[in-house]
Amino acid sequence: MKKLSMILSLVFMSIMFSAVVVMADENKAEKATDVEKVFPKDEVQKLIADIEKEEVLPDKETGSMSPARASGSYPRRKGVILATADAYKGLIPTGHAAIVYDPQHVIEAVGKGVVKGGNRWYRTKKTCWGVTVKKISAKKDAAAAEWCKRQLGKPYNYNYFNIKTRAKFYCSHLVWASFRDKYRIDLNTSAFGIAIHPLELVSTSKTRTVYKK
Amino acid sequence: MKRELYFLPLLLLSLSLIVLLSACKKDSQSTVKEYNKPSIGIIETKDTRYESCIHWYGFDGKKVGEMQLKYANLGSDFYSPQKIKDDVYLIPEGLGNQKDTKKVIRMNLKSLEIEEYPFSNIALNHTTVIENRIYAINTLNNATYLEFYDRKSKQNKHIVRKSSHINSIIPIDNMVVSFREVDDENPEKKIIFMEVYNRDLKLKYAKNITDYGIPGEDYCEDKNFFYLPVAFTAEYKNTGKILKINKKNFNIEEEIGVPEIKPDRIYIHNGEFLITDYDPVDGSGTSVMRLTPGGKKKIIDLKTSLSLTYIFKGYFIVANDKIIQIHDIKDFKLIKKIPLKDKDDSYTSAILLRNP
Questions:
Q1: CATH, range A39-212
Q2: Partners of residue B188 in chain A, C-beta under 8 Å
């Protein structure tokens, strides 16, 4: 009888544990739903369809540290914006953005905040666009990347509509803010209201595509 | 009694599930475990999901097993995993938009068992091992955390290097040698330090090596020296050279010029250097340079991207997202081509080798 009670207790504990796990998953799903309300799936898909038509154009002349590259080469010039349409779990469910800091590193806002990481998107991402802001020089692009570097360590901004803050950032918010604050160039578009989806950095008429995978 | 009866089916169901899951786990590993010849393991990993798979192939090209793992971005073509006897150490970086996995893992290539070691920070980018201590680095807040986990005491210890980025750490004679970049006032130029720590992370030696360029993430060693490939100057201009460094006093004894290539991985085989010509940033480069002690060079084009390379006995093994190529190391003659399945949202990140 004692054994049976022990087994029953174990089963009960397993069921309770499963219930807790299910509830935790539901909470996560709720968070994800909120993000999907900000960036509705069908609108993101439409955006992807639009930017897939983008023509790849030559990059800017540099003459500085980043060696000249053949047209359409993977970006390694400081200040080139990287964006992907890959589908992630959590945070922004479709898409991510970063800015090239030097040929081997990027600056990006990830789950724990703004970090410097390897420029490894060529291998790790299924889709990738490299874009450059029109009407400003490569030197100014580099200065925007420096601005992003100064934000290292700031936390992740989970309020996708709060783009005024400079105390925390989400990925596309960080890249957008660098050009907005330095040069008054607004890379946001009318899609998704005030929130900035990573792929808007590609779709905006203020950038041109220099690399596409 | 009625309540007991009510729980009985649930109990049976739970037990069946446990048995089923164990059986599945065993099945995925047992085939390669039972394979008693050397096999090549290719890690295929994802940036967007906690999913990786090791595909095991015999040298005849036949698949001999696979092993599913719940890690995202496991391994990288930027560095070779450190192998000590039958153990291999890898970083699962986590999802590409979160870099959230704070672990280094050890896989025993005989038993295929995995042990995880906890670290304090996310975005780990390089690891090395000295005896029972596992070291890893990451960069947060424009500071690099160099941390170790001691397997015996199960304790962590870290130091912080502010305003800098450590690209790689390597083990040389029970010391941790790191290569740290500091941004100059002129952001177009880096200042590079080689720094040597003892096992307890006390700094023992530091040298400004800016004039020599930015070392890559690979190295090789012989009795008295270790060798570092350098592909870029501190201003990110292309250069190709190998630094020969004395293990006793860390003096840079020689710069061996290899301007014909972008040196990435370096091996010593039968007294000669084998250096791959590969750029991990854009995946370009298909050649290997053979360099004799007398300075004679020969470049051999293997006609496939050298994302991952491995030397095993008389074989030079190459892998990328599309293919595994096995070459005879004597003359680089192609022995076997093993085409890999097309990948949708994953990439190959490491070569492992099992030799039962």
A1: 3.90.1720.10
A2: 64-65, 142
